[in-house]
Amino acid sequence: MDEKPPTSPNNEQQRQQYRSRIRKLKMRLLPIVQHVCKIVIAAVLALWLWSWLYDENSNKNRTWMRDGEEVAKSGWRWSDVGATREVEWQPCYEKYDCAKLELPLDYLDLTDKRRAAIAMIRFNATERTDYKGPVFINPGGPGGSGIWFVKHLGPYYQSVVGKNHDIISFDPRGVGASSPRISCWDNMQDSKIWKFKDVDVLDAHPGSLYDAYAHAAASSQQCAYTLQPPTKSDLGVGSFVSTASVARDMLEIMTKVGEEKLKYWGFSYGTYLGATFAAMFPDKVGRMVNDGNVDVVEYSAGRGIHFIQDADTIMAAFYHFCHAAGQELCAFHLDSEKDIETRLEKLLENIRKNPVVVPGSSSSSGRPQIVSYSKVKRMIGSTLYRPLVMFPALADALAALEKGDGSVFLDLATQNFDDPLICESRYGVQEGGDPTDPTPEMPEAEVSEDGGTTILCSDGGWMNDTVDEFGAYVDEVMIRSKSVGAIMAEMRLECVHWSVQAKWKFDGPFDGNTSHPILFIANIADNVTPLRSARVNAKGFPESVILVQNGYGHTSLSAPSKCTAKTIRAYFQNGTLPAPNTVCEPDLTPFEPYNVTSSMAESCDDHQLDVALFELMKAPVIGA
């Protein structure tokens, strides 16, 4: 290629010979150049493909930090899952299966082409030799994310019902990863700003009730405008999230996963869903445990009165067991139960007038905080859901508040508790997050507070009380519970002037001759779902049995009892019901240290059951 043309331009023959040699050289080089180009292109494509595969693998195995610990991140997102007419499971969250099932939005008008997409999760049976199919879980609410609870607690539920069961749950329509997802706001920022505005407890100060009523009415108007705009002729999605529609969804899900009859364990609001399903489809009930029962008649009427009749009994248990525990185990201890009660009343009255200020230097947020009467009352109300977990910490916080130290109270609000030791190895359930206001790892919201309100108000109807009529209701509820009446009356307040009505609302009758009797479970004292409600609900379902647990708190999970857990397991495994009037004792009492290693001398199965019950006891409670 370095050959030069002849220097004499007048020699035409030489120039032609030169051009001929150049053409021949190009002809010889062209195939070589083409081959080299093919190799280069192939190499580039191979490099690109390798890079793409590497990135995909990195996304699947990449780690991220949570609470200072490295956690595997799957790279899997709900937004990447398409809804299908049949259940198509795919791996998710490291050890689970997930799917989205497409179902009719309006079961009463199948010509409506709009569809719901129900997000589902499954923790597979770990013993397959005597496989008994799935048990469906509903954690309560309304508005609780079944995805969140099974993702965090699936192995623990399975330890109770038996490892030869799958654990399946789903986000109800309007909630979390399911669609349509209910939101009363155009963006999350506006929602957070609105909900950041604190509203005092109804008995905090003169005028608190009026402010709370106006705040609730404004929220309802916002939801009405967003969920059912006046310019829209068709019913908005808020009209299709009632419990009747969810029960129908559950029937479809059960059928699509290949089951003829439902096996179900529902908690709190989940018992209302269970009772609705049993009344609508009694021949489809295989096993049903309704744990912590909502009075179905009062709930559907939207005017609950008796639901808090046991709350003061649990508050009295705080005084009783604090006194019995002594100063070493209860920081709020005095010489008698009555003295402890009086001490708390004086503290509340003092804080009503003189809220405790926590300076920014002592606050984890770096901002000053105010511990007010309303915050303390709400915290007391929350502790009644889980006395075993919360009572000792509450006593510490109250004792510190007496001394003007609110930092202990703020620490309690985070609800962080130590994990127990275990027999062999942890189940590895990912921790962190809150099913009522999660910061999910994707990040994708897993629950909708607005969805919960919409379901509640769809089921209970429009609360059209005037402010004075609502005030009379508050007085009635406060008579039934001095400790939390003013707090729990707010549940009805959520639906003040609510106007988004359900197209399909099931009002009963809540009865039916189910294909297998239902097992109802109730604590001797439950702050929001009393034993009375279990008795009311059980009357509608012949041959069903009520198991009473001699514990305090909300649902059987609040007071771990291997007696209760083994009764539930026997029921799911072979259909065995306990004898009528059976009472199970809890494994410990409030302020008694819970030593999860106490069963090490027993079987490892019993120890794992202890661990499971402890973890389930610590789990968040929707609405607490």
Automatic annotation (TrEMBL):
SUPFAM superfamilies hit by this protein: alpha/beta-Hydrolases (SSF53474)
Q: Which Gene3D superfamilies does the entry link to?
A: alpha/beta hydrolase (3.40.50.1820)
A Pfam family the protein falls into: Abhydrolase_4
Query: Which segments constitute the AB hydrolase-1 domain?
Result: 134-293
Which sequence ranges are marked TM in the entry? 29-53
- Read off the InterPro entries from this record: AB_hydrolase_1, AB_hydrolase_fold, Pept_S33_TAP-like_C, Serine_prot/Carboxylest_S33
Could you tell me one molecular function GO term of this UniProt entry?
A: hydrolase activity
Alphabetic keyword roster: Hydrolase, Membrane, Transmembrane, Transmembrane helix
Family indicated by similarity: Belongs to the peptidase S33 family.
Question: What's the protein here called?
Answer: Putative hydrolase
Organism expressing this protein natively: Lachnellula arida
